[in-house]
Design goal:
The structure holds 2 protein chains of 2 kinds.
Chain A: E1 7-11, H1 17-41, H2 46-54, H3 61-86, H4 94-112, H5 121-150, H6 154-174, H7 209-226, H8 228-238, H9 240-245, H10 250-277, H11 288-298, H12 303-327, H13 333-353, E2 354-358
Antiparallel strand pairs in A: 1-2
Helix pairs in contact in A: 1-2, 1-13, 2-12, 3-7, 3-8, 3-10, 3-11, 3-12, 4-5, 4-6, 4-10, 4-11, 5-6, 5-10, 7-8, 7-12, 11-12, 11-13, 12-13
Chain B: H1 2-30, H2 38-56, H3 59-83, H4 88-107, H5 131-135, H6 140-158, H7 160-170, H8 172-177, H9 182-208, H10 220-230, H11 235-257, H12 264-268, H13 270-283, H14 286-292
Classes of the chains: A mainly alpha, B mainly alpha.
């Protein structure tokens, strides 16, 4: 069957620079084509359906602000994962680090946000963000510790910790952090406005966290491309032997990348609590931490790329929500698109190292 | 005594999907392929098995649907990871994300439906005192899983094909030089692994719960992956490990049942925490892992590339 296929893969002399950047675009286009086919199968008009995914999120100031708002947690998580994946540390537990960050930030506000405590809004906000960052970094440090001390596989540990984190959050909103006046719903109180992030544009939900995210992406760009530490991480990931020869410590790389990654994920969690959500809920994350893995790959493991990847992923999330309200499709369609996108991206990435050639008739 | 019997039975019940999935993954990994998509395959098979089982009222057809879905998804994985030599970790993750999304999407219409009760157990034997309710009252798939485990052990260590499979996992270059098709053998291994994960997923939705909710598998695919390392890639230890993890899962319900005042969410962490602890303990000695782990695990094989 395969022998009859007229195309074959031929190893390139050197990885193609063009394909490195073309591959994500190709994957996105292919995802859209497959998506259109999927809509056709579901009996929906593919043009109208794709319009919901591609055009509607750009219709007007409010829609665009929502797009940017949703990209914040995705970009932040992906910034951290970019560092990890560059160092070949497979942290796939950003979801858990995000959850613990949100939990710690929420717990901090439950503690601070009581009448007569005398904490100003700014101080409270800074404290809660610190709690979120530290919480996320702490959660990632468990993975780092177990990998460092016991050589335990970071993929499985970070993922198991994600389940533990979600249960921890469930426990908190059902127990110690539950709103006493909340009709017994598993959620914390709604926090006062003074502890919420200031809005960037009046009349929208876009908060200053977006600016922080962009600044963070710029700082991380300098870090990974211009600093010795960033360089040593990348060398450790690409060529561990060379890194050892150069005297770069793999332990440092492990701890640094996981702490940075956990910190960013925790920051994202804190921003969600102090931004669009405004209270602690069991459902703080609709899978942002997992989607961020795809974002990091689409962004070519580059912080600026992560910004673009985050915006594209945000589009998929909004498209899924709109598909539910306008097309009557379950919003879980976002997950289908996410999986397809990553599959196609990996397939297209083959073209970085290989070129397609017509088979010559022997 | 009666309680102990029901505890043993419940542990076997919750260990069965782990055993099924881990045996399949063991074959994958013995051939040198790391498929992190187990969770995704199990989720899709769980909803496929449930949908077919619910509409046809046949558990057998449900299991068949689950196995077929698992094989289809592992074919997708094989196409990427073998033919296109993509990164196995990333491809497996993609499969898990895709499976989670697809199962949630397809499963919307099946939430809240219940299956008719099925008779289970081995006639006559299940009426024996103690051992009857403890060991012989399971669904037939549990016994099939046990047989499968024995068959895999026999296959790996007592047949020529098993030797070739292990050779492909240890040194694909040598196997290739001897004229064996590394990709062909790995593809077969992946198909088997997919079918096993499919049966495991279908078991969860058809027998264990038996119903469908989003995210039904709740990490069992990942626990099964950890189990293969825990078992140092040996079938008998996979059996032991899955019973152990099955009983850890049951322990939380038991503790709740006898009125331990620990919040249920904390108790539910048990299987995950146990997995982490076990992983840390067995990985502590790197030499031991290096000795037992298939040498080419997770590394793509490119015939002709130096």
């Amino acid at each position: 069957m395969l022998k009859a296929f007229p195309l074959k893969l031929e190893l390139r002399g050197a990885p193609s620079q063009t394909m490195t950047y073309l591959s994500p675009l190709l994957a996105i286009v292919l995802t859209m084509i497959l998506g259109a086919l999927l809509f056709l199968l579901l009996g929906k008009d593919p043009v109208a359906a794709l319009k919901v995914f591609l055009i509607d999120p750009f219709s007007g100031k409010r829609a665009i602000s929502e797009l940017l708002l949703k990209s914040v947690p995705l970009i932040l998580c992906a910034l951290g994962l970019t560092v990890c994946f560059r160092a070949s540390i497979w942290n796939i537990g950003a979801e858990g680090q995000f959850t613990v960050g949100a939990l710690c930030a929420g717990a901090m506000l439950v503690w601070l946000d009581v009448p007569g405590h005398g904490i100003s809004g700014t101080v409270g906000l800074i404290l809660m963000i610190c709690a979120g960052v530290l919480g996320g970094a702490f959660w990632a440090s468990i993975t780092a510790l177990l990998r460092d001390r016991f050589n335990a596989n970071e993929i499985l540990v970070s993922l198991m910790l994600t389940y533990v984190a979600q249960l921890l959050l469930m426990y908190a909103v059902n127990g110690p952090l539950k709103d006493p006046n909340g009709m017994n719903f598993p959620q914390s109180k709604v926090f006062s406005d003074e502890f919420m992030l200031p809005m960037l544009i009046a009349g929208t939900r876009l908060h200053v966290g977006f600016v922080v995210t962009i600044v963070a992406a710029l700082i991380m760009t300098v870090f990974v491309t211009r600093s010795l530490r960033g360089f040593s991480l990348t060398v450790g990931g690409v060529a561990p032997h060379a890194a050892r020869y150069a005297g770069f410590s793999s332990r440092n790389a492990l701890w640094m990348s996981l702490l940075i990654s956990g910190g960013f994920a925790g920051l994202a969690g804190a921003f969600e609590i102090a931004g669009p959500i405004g209270q602690l809920l069991p459902s703080v994350s609709p899978g942002y931490g997992f989607a961020a893995i795809i974002v990091a790959f689409i962004g070519r493991l580059h912080p600026i790329g992560a910004v673009f990847g985050g915006l594209i992923m945000s589009l998929l999330y909004l498209g899924g929500e709109l598909a539910q309200s306008r097309l009557g499709l379950p919003s879980a369609i976002t997950g289908v698109f996410q999986g397809m996108l990553l599959f196609l991206l990996l397939a297209c990435d083959t073209l970085i190292d290989y070129r397609l050639r017509w088979k010559q008739q022997a | 005594m009666e309680q102990l019997a029901s505890l043993i039975a419940a542990s076997i019940n919750s260990g069965t999907p782990l055993l099924l999935a881990a045996i399949g993954l063991l074959i994958n990994e013995r051939a040198g392929v790391l498929n992190l998509g187990a969770e995704g395959m199990m989720l899709v098979s769980a909803i496929a098995g449930f949908a077919v089982g619910y509409t046809t009222h046949s558990a057998l057809l449900g299991f068949a649907a689950g196995a077929i879905c698992g094989m289809l998804l592992s074919t997708l994985f094989a196409w990427l990871a073998l033919l296109l030599a993509t990164n196995q970790v990333a491809t497996g993750l993609a499969l898990s994300i895709f499976g989670a999304g697809l199962s949630a999407f397809v499963g919307q219409h099946f939430v809240g439906l219940a299956l008719a009760a099925q008779s289970s157990g081995i006639p006559l034997l299940r009426d024996l005192p103690f051992v009857g309710p403890a060991l012989f009252s399971q669904h037939w798939m549990s016994y099939l899983a046990l047989l499968l485990c024995a068959a895999v052990a026999w296959f790996l260590y007592r047949t020529r094909a098993g030797l070739i499979l292990r050779a492909v996992g240890e040194s694909p270059e040598s196997a290739h030089a001897l004229g064996y098709s590394v990709h062909g053998i790995r593809f077969m291994a992946l198909l088997f692994g997919g079918a096993c994960c499919g049966l495991a997923g279908a078991y969860l939705s058809l027998v264990y719960t038996p119903m469908w909710v989003e995210g039904l598998v709740s990490g069992r695919g990942w626990i099964a992956l950890a189990l293969t390392a825990f078992a140092t890639w040996r079938p008998a230890r996979v059996l032991l490990g899955s019973l152990l993890f099955g009983s850890v899962t049951i322990l939380q319900f038991y503790l709740q049942g006898i009125g331990v005042t620990i919040p249920s969410q904390i108790l539910s962490m048990l299987p995950y925490v146990a997995t982490i602890v076990v992983l840390a303990l067995i990985s502590r000695n790197p030499d031991w892992i290096r000795l037992n782990m298939p040498a080419s695990l997770g590394k793509p094989f490119r015939p002709g590339a130096s």
